[in-house]
Every structure is written in structure tokens, then in C-alpha cells.
Write a structure and sequence with these properties.
heterodimer; A: mainly alpha; two-stranded antiparallel sheet; 13 helices; B: mainly alpha; 10 helices
Chain lengths: ~325, ~250
């Protein structure tokens, strides 16, 4: 293809996006578009899968049958999200095996929030309320992103996430209205998850390397700082409603901006966790790699069995 | 209180409770995403069934006790599940073997329980049987895949079946409550399910190119509350919150 032809294709492609047309798997796309989408979509899929771990940590110890069943359903939803996000990523010409390999070798990232430990039951509430809450803020705009399979997957993901968020908030509400001990559990969980949840919305705009291009492709609609502000403004009244205190002494309503001012985020902690030095990075990777390696003989058996069945079928035909 | 009916319900529900709890341990750690989802789903079904049974049992008890009290605040000797369902997830072959050996029983049991003169039990059975027929299909398919897969998977599947076989006979033992409920046409006469059970199990094992274990010596005791050492640890997890934070709502 000549340089001119390529330029032409690119111009047409950008025009399609500008017209809000969806790009589909078989359409021509610039290599960078493909790579960027593989990176972001697989990172999203990995986050769903790794994100199962901190919550599955409490399945066997959930305090009531109702909570146990709801938690199982929630973690199962996340596995489901992982499944169709991997499938959507595969439409860009990469296999699930390759994607797993990127996760297991550390080449691909997942959301850093899942490197924090779930130490009490209240963390199930805090994760649903705050982590899923922040995730929704990130993800709702993606329902209109330019890549068709991703946009469609996100419609379903967002519906389920918003249910999870309400469920998490309901856990917190129950604790906050419970005994003193339960209220302490809730406040302690909020104290530990608040700042990591703010960090989850990504580095400040000045340090975010992918923003500009991603905005153009509608992979991103608002900057990290705008999303963070939206999350804070939405969450503070929810905390107040159930009598919990946001652990930020600098948090203050700003009449002029019509938003909350908030304190300094510890970005050093954020980058350390991204680099692999969070409290649970090693455990999470060990669990994922361990499940994959221990499961190899099972996957091999399934393949071998399917081949045998196929052979038998062919013999019957002959 | 109708004590026999109460104990009868617990006998049924404890199997689902303990098995649901066991499979729940695997969530997030399955050999593939698809099997992870399926196992979580089975756990979810079983624990959903448990809620129906225990809510009914709590109603029969007619005092303050709730489904959670029944599920999480009994002593180890008061759990009446069969030994089979409390066996650990030693590897995926054990998980599948345990599931298969229980599902085949569970399915035939529920088919009979649907005929119960107790309308609540028959309605619960009617709802559960749809879920359990899926469980049985899932576990049977995996026994076939692992049995007739690779040399390694065959070895592992055979080992699991051999080890778990000793717990199958207990499924057909009757407690005092079982016998009383059979007399009232409320309960299922499990002794009559044995023939069909072993036929179905053996047919499938043969199809999976596995050997039928020859051992004629079987373990028992679960239905009377005498368990293997594995149960205590499972209960420590199951009961942790209710014991640590007593008398609270969640």
C-alpha cells in the first residue's frame, strides 16, 4: 500500500469515528488503534479476573446465607465480564492464551486497586460501593466508544456493575446502622479504600500518557481528574447519608466550583503499587498463575477428549 | 415442633450447604474461566436451595431461629451431611468426582421428593431438580473428559473415584427421621434408589473408560453427625462471622 493510500484510509477512518460510526472487527483500522484497544480491553478483562480474588476471599466466610449467595453471584458476574471482554479483545486478532500470557508475565496490567487486601467483611461493602462506583464512572462513557464489540460488551457490564454498587452500598448501610462494632467495621473499611479508589481513576491529567489519543477515539470521554471529581461529588453525600466520615481532613465543599475540594493524593503509593509493590501484588499473580498452571492438565484433557470424539465421529461417517 | 420433619429437612439441606461451601472455595481459582463460572454457579444453586430448605425448617421450628442460625450456629456433631460432600478439593478430578457421585444421587432423590405429600418439600424439589439436572450433566461430561482425555487426566480421575467410592454407600443409609418421614409419605426411601444409582454411575464410568472400584468397604457416620476431620475446618470458615460477631444483622 502506498503512503498516499494509507493516508487516505486513515482519513476515512477518522471521519467515521467523528460521525460516531462503530468500527467493527473486519473493518480496516490503523495499527495503533488495534494495539491501543488490545491494551485497554485486555487490561479491563484482566482487572475483572484478578478482581475476583479479593472478593472470593470472603465467600466461605460471608456472614449470612443471603450475603454468601449475593457475593457468589457478584464474583460470577465478574468472571462473566472477563469472559466477554476477552472475547471482544480476541476480535482484534489476539488469542486468549496470548492475553493470559501477557498478564502472567507482567507485560499487561490490571487495575491496581485489586492489590489491596480484603481484611474484614466490611471490605465487601466498600469494594462494591467505592471500587465498583469508580469503575462505573470510568466505564459508562465506554458504552459509546468507537469499537463496536467493546461498546456492546460495556452496555452489559455497566448494568451489572451498577447493581453491584447498590449492593455494596447496602452492605455498608446495614453495617453503619448496626451495632457499634459494625459501624467501626464500616468506617475502617472506608478509611482503607477511599484513597485507593480515588487513585483508581488514574494518574493526574498532567501525567496521563494515553489521554489525548484515547479521547479522539472515544476510548475516553473525560479526563482522569474530571472523572475523579465526579466520583468524589457523587460519593461524599452517600457517606454522609449513612453517617460515615470520608478520611480526608481537607475535604470541603467549594461553592464557587460547585464541587468538593479534596486533599493531596499520595501518588508515590500509587506508582509503587503499579510497579508491583502493593500489599498483594505477589499473591494475586501467584493465584492467577497457579490456577492456570494447575489447570493445564484439565485443559489438555478437554482438548484430547474433544479430538477423540471428533475422530470417532469421522470414523462413523466413513 | 415436628421434630422428625425438621431433622429430615436438615438432613437434605446439609448436603447442599456443605457441598455449596466446598465448591465456593474454588471461585476465582478454576482451571479455566468457563469452569470457574460453572462451579461458582453450582455453588450458587446449592446455597440457594439451602435457603429454601432452612427457611422452611425455621418455620417448622416456630421459635426465634433463622435460616442463618440453622446454617451457621450448630455444633460439628449436629451437621447431618454425608461424608462425601465434605471431602476437600484436592484437585479438579476430586472436585468433579465428588460432584458427579453426589449429583447422580441428588437427581434421583429430587425426582422422588417431588412426589412428597409435603407440598413445600415437593415444590422445593420441583425447583431444584432443574438446577441439579444441569449439575449432573456438567459433572458427567467432565468425568468423561478427564477419564477419556490424556493419560495423566485418566490417572487422576481414576484415583479420585477410587478414593471417593468409599463414601457412596452412605447416601442410601436411613436415619430415624428418614424412616419416620418415609412412613408418612413425606420422605424419600433412599434404600430404593441404590440400584439405579450404581447402575447410572457404573455406566458412565465405563463410558469414561474408567474402572469401577472393587472395594466393598464403605465409610459412614455423616448422617449421624460423625464426620471426617475435614468438616471442622470448613465449619470454622462458615461460622466465622456469626461466632465472632454474635446477634447482629448483616
Amino acid at each position: 500500500m502506498s503512503k498516499e493510500q494509507l493516508k487516505n484510509l486513515e482519513t476515512q477512518f477518522e471521519a467515521r469515528i467523528a460521525r460516531d460510526e462503530k468500527i467493527e472487527p473486519k473493518d480496516w483500522m490503523p495499527e495503533k488503534y488495534r494495539k491501543t484497544h488490545i491494551r485497554q480491553m485486555s487490561q479491563h478483562a484482566h482487572s475483572e479476573i484478578v478482581g475476583m480474588l479479593p472478593e472470593s476471599n470472603w465467600i466461605t466466610r460471608a456472614p449470612s446465607l443471603r450475603r454468601k449467595v449475593a457475593l457468589l453471584a457478584k464474583v460470577q458476574d465478574e468472571a462473566g465480564h472477563g469472559l466477554y471482554l476477552y472475547s471482544a479483545t480476541e476480535t482484534l486478532g489476539i488469542s486468549r492464551e496470548e492475553l493470559y500470557n501477557q498478564l502472567h508475565t507482567g507485560a499487561a496490567k490490571y487495575s491496581s486497586i485489586f492489590n489491596y487486601p480484603t481484611v474484614t467483611w466490611a471490605d465487601m461493602g466498600a469494594i462494591g460501593w467505592l471500587v465498583d462506583g469508580a469503575a462505573i464512572i470510568n466505564q459508562v462513557p465506554l458504552c459509546n466508544t468507537s469499537y463496536g464489540p467493546y461498546a456492546r460488551a460495556m452496555v452489559r457490564v455497566c448494568k451489572e456493575e451498577s447493581f453491584h454498587q447498590r449492593q455494596g452500598y447496602e452492605i455498608m448501610m446495614k453495617l453503619a446502622n448496626g451495632t457499634m462494632e459494625q459501624k467501626d467495621l464500616a468506617q475502617d473499611a472506608l478509611n482503607r479504600w477511599w484513597w485507593p479508589s480515588l487513585m483508581m481513576l488514574g494518574p493526574t491529567d498532567a501525567e496521563s500518557i494515553h489521554t489525548e489519543q484515547s479521547m479522539k477515539w472515544k476510548l475516553k470521554r473525560k479526563s482522569n481528574d474530571d472523572l475523579r471529581q465526579q466520583f468524589i461529588d457523587q460519593t461524599v453525600p452517600q457517606a454522609e447519608l449513612i453517617g460515615l466520615t470520608i478520611p480526608d481532613p481537607d475535604l470541603k465543599w467549594n461553592d464557587e466550583r460547585g464541587s468538593y475540594d479534596y486533599g493531596e493524593i499520595d501518588w508515590e503509593e500509587f506508582w509503587q503499587v503499579v510497579k508491583g509493590n502493593g500489599p498483594c501484588n505477589r499473591e494475586r499473580m501467584k493465584a492467577r498463575v497457579g490456577a492456570w498452571e494447575e489447570g493445564e492438565w484439565v485443559r489438555d484433557a478437554a482438548m484430547a477428549h474433544a479430538e477423540k470424539k471428533q475422530e470417532r465421529k469421522q470414523k462413523q461417517v466413513v | 415442633m415436628k421434630e422428625n420433619l425438621y431433622n429430615y429437612i436438615l438432613g437434605i439441606a446439609d448436603n447442599s450447604l456443605i457441598l455449596g461451601q466446598r465448591i465456593g472455595e474454588l471461585c476465582g481459582h478454576g482451571p479455566s474461566l468457563e469452569t470457574d463460572i460453572a462451579c461458582t454457579n453450582i455453588s450458587l444453586d446449592l446455597l440457594g436451595q439451602v435457603r429454601s430448605y432452612f427457611q422452611y425448617a425455621a418455620k417448622i421450628a416456630g421459635d426465634e431461629r433463622t435460616e442463618d442460625d440453622i446454617a451457621m450456629l450448630r455444633k460439628e456433631r449436629d451437621y447431618k451431611n454425608v461424608l462425601l460432600v465434605e471431602q476437600p478439593n484436592s484437585n479438579f478430578a476430586y472436585t468433579i468426582g465428588r460432584q458427579f457421585l453426589f449429583d447422580v444421587y441428588h437427581l434421583t432423590f429430587l425426582a422422588e421428593l417431588q412426589k412428597s405429600t409435603d407440598l413445600t418439600l415437593s415444590a422445593i424439589a420441583n425447583k431444584c431438580i432443574k438446577e441439579v439436572s444441569y449439575h449432573e450433566r456438567f459433572s458427567s461430561d467432565w468425568v468423561k473428559r478427564l477419564g477419556d482425555g490424556t493419560v495423566e487426566s485418566k490417572e487422576k480421575m481414576q484415583e479420585a473415584i477410587n478414593d471417593l467410592w468409599t463414601y457412596t454407600d452412605e447416601l442410601f443409609h436411613q436415619t430415624k427421621a428418614d424412616k419416620a418421614m418415609v412412613l408418612e409419605s413425606v420422605g424419600v426411601d433412599v434404600t430404593k434408589l441404590k440400584g439405579d444409582y450404581y447402575k447410572r454411575v457404573k455406566d458412565l464410568l465405563e463410558e469414561a473408560t474408567l474402572k469401577i472400584p472393587e472395594s466393598k468397604w464403605f465409610q459412614k457416620g455423616g448422617k449421624e453427625g460423625v464426620h471426617t476431620e475435614h468438616l471442622g475446618y470448613l465449619l470454622s470458615d462458615l461460622q466465622y462471622m456469626q461466632r465472632t460477631y454474635p446477634n447482629m444483622e448483616w
